[in-house]
Structure to design on (259 residues):
């Protein structure tokens, strides 16, 4: 069997890094993308003898996805699985949020994910084989006061993936949205929620657990998968509540999460 190739964005930390470990062990050739090149090279060395290509890139820059696509073409790298994992959050009142950070969230969480999928899908469809995996969140299902932009970007990711999954029926390519709840990774330090009560608790899943869940779900070609039974119940129950009530509850939860 030919070696399959996966491109994982945000592989320098957290879920993306663990997913690289899981997929390398299962025989995938990997293309790892993030800004922190030293961490990507260290991971590539750790994963040897797996074939790993490192591409250091800031996905918040305009045309980043196009640049990445051109690099893949130049290097003759064909992608079987695209894992749009890179993402970041921010915790603040919307009108006090740093505009640069807001732009980065929009670009990394939505634009880069959308453009990369658009650029890589035609080849997958032509070969009748491929996986698009988008790391969404439990946040995709609610409005998120105090993390308003982050939640909205993740709602976009879920909506896009669900629509794409329908369009892709009978093409041999699947689209999957993974929806983790709070997960131990670098995410909380970046978003400013790392001192939140409960974040150090052992009940918070680690990135490896979510990575294994992501890989298994991808192989099953499931469209939407919420990680963790508690969050599956939560997402189900909140369908029966007024959205304004859900938004208020999320706001209350987020108000105790700031540092
Ligand atoms: N952890 C959670 O509680 C949680 C819950 C639900 C969903 N998620 C989602 O899971 C995904 C992975 O997050 P994580 O928890 O693993 O967080 P993490 O440990 O902070 O990892 C985020 C990754 O995204 C990359 N990234 C951020 N900005 C980037 C940019 N401008 N250009 C290129 N890469 C960039 C980072 O690499 P560099 O900094 O090296 O660029 C890093 O590798 C995200 O989409 C996040 O929204 C996380």
């Amino acid at each position: 069997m030919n070696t399959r190739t996966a491109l994982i964005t945000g592989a320098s930390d957290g879920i993306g890094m663990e997913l690289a470990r899981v997929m390398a062990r299962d025989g995938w050739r990997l293309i790892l993308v993030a800004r922190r090149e030293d961490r990507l090279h260290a991971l590539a060395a750790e994963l040897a003898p797996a074939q790993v290509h490192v591409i250091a890139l800031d996905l918040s820059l305009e045309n980043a996805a196009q640049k990445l696509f051109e690099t893949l073409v130049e290097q003759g790298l064909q992608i079987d699985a695209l894992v749009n994992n890179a993402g970041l959050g921010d915790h603040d009142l919307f009108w006090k949020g740093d505009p640069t950070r807001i732009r980065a969230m929009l670009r990394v969480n939505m634009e880069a994910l959308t453009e990369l999928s658009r650029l890589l899908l035609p080849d997958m469809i032509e070969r009748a084989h491929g996986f698009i995996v988008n790391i969404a969140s439990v946040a995709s299902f609610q409005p998120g006061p105090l993390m308003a932009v982050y939640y909205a970007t993740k709602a976009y990711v879920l909506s896009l993936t669900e629509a794409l999954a329908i369009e892709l029926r009978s093409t041999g390519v699947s689209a999957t949205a993974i929806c983790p709840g709070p997960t131990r990774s670098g995410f909380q330090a970046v978003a400013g929620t790392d001192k939140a009560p409960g974040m150090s608790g052992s009940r918070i899943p680690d990135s490896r657990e979510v990575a294994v869940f992501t890989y298994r779900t991808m192989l099953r070609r499931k469209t939407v998968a919420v990680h963790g039974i508690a969050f599956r119940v939560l997402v189900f129950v909140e369908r029966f509540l007024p959205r304004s009530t859900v938004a208020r509850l999320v706001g209350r939860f987020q108000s105790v999460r700031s540092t």
Notes: The beta strands are 5-9, 29-34, 52-56, 81-84, 130-135, 173-179, 224-226.
